[in-house]
Specification:
The chain has 136 residues and is α+β, with helices and mostly antiparallel strands. It contains one helix and eight strands, in the order αββββββββ. Helices cover 17% and strands 46% of the residues.
């Protein structure tokens, strides 16, 4: 018969290898299933400003023409309402809000050389700074 003979064991091993490779690729793309989800979502770039207020602060980062902002609670641990927003002049605001213990964000926008308006809140405290050009 001269054809290639493949055993069922070899097919099973190939399938198992394919499944293992697929799972590894998925974990690489999605990230680990455990840990703090917010730890994986931070702003990239150089920190250019910190806007402080009574219950927290908003940290602003710049990377190329992009600005990114995150709100941090002054006293983390208690779940409370938080928000952060950034708006480049002539564009819509990018907003993230919800309930969190430590931080909210990131929000990111292409600012280029345009001025931006940045807002943040933690519980009853808030900050609203605008129109600011970065770097200051």
């Amino acid at each position: 018969m001269g054809g290639t003979h493949v055993t069922h064991g070899a097919i099973r091993k190939a399938r198992a290898g394919f499944v293992l490779l697929s799972v590894a690729l998925l974990l690489l793309l999605v990230g680990p299933l455990t840990g703090d989800a917010q730890a994986a979502t931070r702003c990239a770039g150089r920190k250019v400003d910190t806007l402080t207020f009574s219950t927290g602060s908003v940290h602003v980062y710049r990377s190329g023409g992009f600005l990114c902002a995150m709100t941090y609670a002054k006293h983390p641990g208690t779940t409370r309402s938080m928000s952060v927003s950034i708006q480049a002049r002539g564009s819509r605001a990018v907003v993230k809000s919800g309930r969190a213990k430590k931080s909210m964000g990131p929000v990111r926008t292409l600012a280029g050389s345009r001025k931006v308006w940045i807002k943040g809140s933690v519980g009853g405290g808030k900050v609203s700074e605008g129109w600011i050009r970065y770097p200051r």
